[in-house]
Amino acid sequence: MLLKEADIKSIRENKVTFIKKFSLLKRNYDFNLLSQLMEENPLVIDQKSRIGNLQDVFHVPKVSNCLTEFKTFLDFLSKIFKYENHHNDEIDLFFSFVSQVGESHVDREDVFIMGLKGKVIYKVFGTDVTEYIIEKGDMIFIPRGIKHKVIGITPRIVAAAGFFGARMKAQM
What is the pTM of this model? Predict the structure, then answer.
């Protein structure tokens, strides 16, 4: 996982931060892998939208123990940014089989979103509206309370690490 000092500083200052090629993912994250994870683990799939006919956005909560790299991703971010432990801190997967537009929303936790498959636009509403294109291995940090919208350009899979606890003061 590649973080430059400027990225770390930006995240510590609670700024939306986009990191191209954050991770050089070796595994092929595809829908076959999702199917395998479902068969081998007691996971639940939630529908985030109600369009039907597999055109929805799907959410698979709490997957950090399914693959080693998910646990590593969560632990790495927790230690680098010194989050206080919270029972809801976890990795969730989001996926869709078709191009899809989500509703604008605000998360109650800090989220680190990493692209695993496909292309996704994260539209962030701040003083200016900024769009970030996330592809496999890219990551975006969106602090809690920042309004954003997700636009899946292609079928996609993303991993979202959510941290609900406060950050301890870090040495700069």
Answer: 0.92
Quote the pLDDT of residue 50.
62
Considering 41-45, 48-52, 93-97, 111-115, the range whose residues carry the highest mean pLDDT is 111-115
Q: What is the CATH number of domain 5-163?
A: 2.60.120.650
Label residue 93 left, alpha or beta by phi (over 0 means left) and psi (-120 to 50 means alpha): beta
Q: How confident is the model at residue 53 (pLDDT cuts 50, 70, 90)?
A: low
Contacts of 111 (CB under 8 A, 6+ apart): 141, 142, 144, 160, 161, 162, 163
Residue ranges of domains in the chain: 5-163
> Residue 170: is its pLDDT beyond 70?
no
Give the span between the Cα atoms of 113 and 103, in whole angstroms. 17
